[in-house]
Specification:
The chain has two domains: 132 residues, Phosphorylase Kinase, domain 1 (2-Layer Sandwich); 130 residues, Transferase(Phosphotransferase), domain 1, CATH 1.10.510.10. The protein contains seven helices and ten strands. It starts with 8 loop residues before the first strand and ends with a helix. The chain is α+β, with helices and mostly antiparallel strands. Helix content is 36%, strand content 21%. A hairpin with a 5-residue loop joins strand 8 and strand 9.
Amino acid sequence: MGNSQSKPVKGQVFPVEAQPKASSKASPQTSAKTAWEEMLVDALDPELQKQHTWSDYEIVEELSRGAFGRILVMKLKARPEKQFVIKRVPYVSANDKKTADEELKMLKKVQSIHTVRFIESFPDGIDLCIVMEYCTGGNLRGLITEMKNMIERDKKIRSYEVLFQVLMSLKVLHSLGIVHRDLKPENIFIDKDGNLKTGDFGLAQDIASKSYLKTAGTKNYLPPEAHTQNKMTEASDIWALGVIIIELLTGVNPYEGKTMDATIQNIKTN
């Protein structure tokens, strides 16, 4: 880690299995083919294999800004039809570097059509810029809102599709010894073809050398042991997915209380 991680890094493409659709836009076979074709085309494009700098990109819009830095949609000037998300994070203090390096390590380690694809990274001034795939379909929170107006049969079909695809992403993560630790609707993204992709690995950690990890993440998606024992394992991700599926079917988090303390108590006792 350390400063060595701030050097420019290019992404890689690794094979993974095909999966069903999260959207009615295309069939499962078409979905997988489209995802594979896009990855292959990008891998063969000499411009996309170059190492870029901040000046090679142009801002399209800013998605969010906070203490963590900025998240922007940007297009590559040499390929203006190609848009990416760039996460621009502070890279000054030892803690800044540790946090950014951990996320970068996870992104590079997890390369699959089931996760948000890492493209490249480069330093710019006092920041580190992490370039990732742009999922234009938003995230699962929007789908939860959309599904409130669906008939029960369609809700069940769509929830199955979500369950299958997110399970595939967790299979990839857990096979690599990684626990996401912050699985929630806002961190599951939808690409232009309706494929679901797990993203935001800022809290993800490697569990390979540990029996469990300390609690992190969004409280109303954490399992009981995270609240009572400060403990998380691969099972914590599965719990979070279960909560998400119930939320898809009902429109509400099953443990939601009037306050966060009430929500945590519901998780501990129900």
